[in-house]
Amino acid sequence: MRKKVDSRIRMLVENGVKTRQRTMFVIVGDKGRDQVVNLHYMLSKAVVKARPTVLWCYKKELYLSSHRKKRLRQIRKMMQRGLIDPEKEDPFSLFMASTNIRYSYYSETHKILGNTFGMCVLQDFEALTPNLLARTIETVEGGGAIVLLLSALSSLSRLYTLAMDVHARFRTESHSDVTGRFNERFIMSLASCRTCVVMDDELNILPLSSHIRELQPVHQLEGEEGMSEAERELKELKESLADTQPIGSLVAKCRTLDQAKAVITFLDAASEKTLRSTVALTAARGRGKSAALGVAIAGAIALGYSNIFVTSPSPENLKTLFEFVFKGFDAIEYKEHIDYDLVESTNPAFNKAIVRVNVFRQHRQTIQYVQPQDNQKLSQAELVVIDEAAAIPLPVVKALLGPYLVFLSSTVNGYEGTGRSLSLKLIQQLREQSAKAGDPASATNGGSEAVVAGSGRVFKEVELSEPIRYAQGDPIEAWLHELLCLDAANHIPRISGRLPHPNECELYYVNRDTLFSYHKASEVFLQRMMALYVASHYKNTPNDLLLMSDAPAHHLFVLLGPVDESKNALPDILCVLQVCLEGEISKKSAMKSLAEGNQPTGDLIPWTISQQYQDSEFPSLSGVRIVRIATHPDLVRAGYGSRAIELLARYYEAQMTDLGEQEEDEEEEEKEDLPTDKAKITEKAEEAVSLLTEQVKPRTGLPPLLVSLAERKPEKLHYMGVSFGLTQPLLNFWRKMKHVPVYVRQTPNDITGEYTCIMIRPLQSDELQQSDGEAWGSAMWLSPFLEDFKKRFICLLGVSFQKFPPALALSILDPKIVFSEQESSEGVRAPGVVGSGMALLSPYDMKRLDSYSRNLVDYHLILDLVPTIAQLYFLEKIPATVSYGQAAILLSIGLQRQELSEVEKSFATEFPALQQRPSTIRW
Fold first, then answer.
1. Fewer CB near the terminus (10 Å): N or C of the chain?
2. Which residues of 315-326 are buried (b: 16+ CB within 10 A; e: fewer)?
3. Neighbours of 434 (CB within 10 A)
């Protein structure tokens, strides 16, 4: 039966096409795929050009196969079963046959990055994650449509309790009860997006989209009258530069005013030819950064630059950049094979990506791809271009900077969520270095900020804010950024009023049910929390938000200053802590894991320690791992992070709560705690409400957002742990927090180049000692692990950790280098160290050492003994007091097996060569 479609749906599609803004349709019902055909028809009628291409994403199975012959066989079978009328053409199969559809598994959506589609269809809602949402929606052009297909539901609130595929990764043996807070917030947020419509599979608009009632048709002006101010300015800029070559032809390729100004800034820096400029380009996704860099490289070739090096995490990431290099060449009339040729990679892993362009029109010029870690190949460079610098480890980016012109680009938010690490650290350092050499001055080009250093380097910043795929102010982009907190980095709250002393600050537990309830106040608080996350040194992805909201073992704490209750305002967040409860694994599971040699997901510290030490007892201990600690960027190194961790340790040691009072109310608390909130979600989901009349609203009667630690009973824990990328400052920080290392990974992380380190702090409380006994209730259980770790680390210093700086290795070992007179006078007492037979040092060895100590023989004569002596010394078998420098030299030569010449070079600044040889070893 034919049915008239609600005119507002067609109007929404047409308005989107006129304004170059995207629209979103959420269709509830099993027949939703049939309505995709109708929506695509409306869209193709409105765009008045080629039929829009479609991206169709799914988990495993499609209704009809994407393979043409298989699809025909499926249709034939359906006809035989009577599911399709053979007399009529099935609209859906006709749509599939006549439309350019790109099918993609959710697991392969990384391959569609950089492509643009007119429509995106997302089925299998349970397989969606925030990363996938951002990645797929980002590919739709302005005027396009996003269609989200949901299975038949009697109520939208049933989605709150829907088991998502990603939840399986969040469950651990001791924490298996997942609460779907993210789905609840997702559904609530749909009502706030004015170009989103939620409807059933007959295109009846649901009450959640009540804002659609006020929809009015948009009247778009044609020609110059319909141009925005920026578009008119861009047109004038292109006309004014038409006679200035090569810049005029290159700017003509730009799509937005921001992009044109960025290209002009790049070419200005290149035309100076002083080779002392750094230009940093930052923007969100889809703003045309790579395109601007590509056009700028073509301009640099026209200006005569000979050696241009391009780097990015992988040459495949440079597809867009090289595409626009060639578009730039077309603009300045360079012809392939006549003026330049290109070389593709023969490495199968790089998928035939372009790695070199040879130009031979004026003279021999090259554009060469180098891997980020090959900075030593840049000695002859004139221009180095770093694309997607935020995805490269910070030390590697710093090593790429040198005495040549540098262009770098970085994504500051968007689906990659590369964080603000690059812009906060590297760009800030470049700005400060330039400011030290001269006074800051503002550049007029491209809205960039330039710092001119008198005799140093010139540093310029350019930011692209105008999107290219769709119009400025696109409602879908605004909705997605708010939902996934992608734009939080641009809204880091300023600290108001007086800064409190760390000792005045208190730690509060954050109730996640209230935090993700989509109430106005809790949304502001969530955005502020995420702003601190993104502003910290962590690499963030939208999936982190899902982990925060739904993972049952995760908990959130915030450090706040003294709260003024007279002010009706949210307090300033000084520090955010995200922790994960781990352990309490049965011995049976631990034994099975050890026997099979596999490591289940979750419970990072218990499984790692269990596997490394082949210990089946450790996983049964309960612990808390600090997943993240993010301090306000204006308050770094002010003591707030230390205060937060110290308060957390005191809380889990039951020093913050009055246990006497707590025991009395224990039963009531168990009833009134989180299960109640989960019960409300389940109860809400099970209410019998018609889909067409259901009013979806944020829950009421929620508990307070912030809970004082004195009011919440802590879990019984044996230890507090942390896993992080090993650096000297971080190791020092965690040492100060009374953590000790128990594991260092033997291979560096592929992305950061850092070695993973696990440190543990034993927790002690009277309650633990009463329940678990003296052995597990005190810190005694940790000693065997520490001794074993120290022994293994000493042995591995000559193999896996040979390149460790001596200071870092010494900090990990934390050796005893000062002995009392009594200990020194007693000498070596350990059996098997000095003596005949199987002793480590024979009488002949002692004679050689004696002669060397009196400068009678050369050090080569005792070089074979140094590793043995070093090992004995750092295991505290030789009680000799030495200086820190001598201990570092002994470690470098004896444990890391370095040549004396290498040691002299590395220690030249701290220890003159004359002081190094004679007194390295003495007792």
1. N
2. bbbbebbbebbb
3. 22
Cβ-based neighbour number of residue 120 at 10 Å: 25
Helix (H) or strand (E) segment spanning residue 103: strand 101-105
Sequence-separated (6 or more) residues with CB below 8 Å from residue 91: 34, 37
Say if residues 299 and 250 touch (Cβ distance below 8 Å).
yes
In the annotated binding site for acetyl-CoA, the residues are: 629-631, 636-642, 736
> Which of the four pLDDT bands, split at 50, 70 and 90, describes residue 448?
very low
What is the torsional sign of CA 81, 85, 89, 92? negative
Domains and CATH numbers, the chain: 7-214 (3.40.50.11040), 256-464 (3.40.50.300), 502-584+622-661+700-717 (3.40.630.30), 585-620 (no CATH), 718-795 (no CATH), 797-916 (no CATH)
* CB neighbourhood size of 445 (10 A): 17
Which residues are known binding-site members for ATP?
Answer: 286-295, 469
| Residue range 634-655, pLDDT digits in tens | 888 899 999 999 999 999 998 8
Helix (H) or strand (E) holding 54: strand 54-58
In the block, residue with structure tokens 């005569």: 304
Q: Are 218 and 15 in contact (CB under 8 A)?
A: yes
Distance in angstroms (rounded) separating the CA atoms of residues 548 and 557:
11
Binding residues are: 286-295, 469, 629-631, 636-642, 736
What's the CA angle centered on 395, arms 425 and 625, to 5 degrees?
75
DSSP 377-440: GGTT-SEEEESSGGGS-HHHHHHH--SSEEEEEEE-SSTT---SHIIIIIIHHHHHHHHHHS-B
Strands (E), 692-841: 706-708, 719-725, 740-744, 756-762
**Burial call 225-234: b when 16+ CB within 10 Å, e when fewer:** eeeeeeeeeb
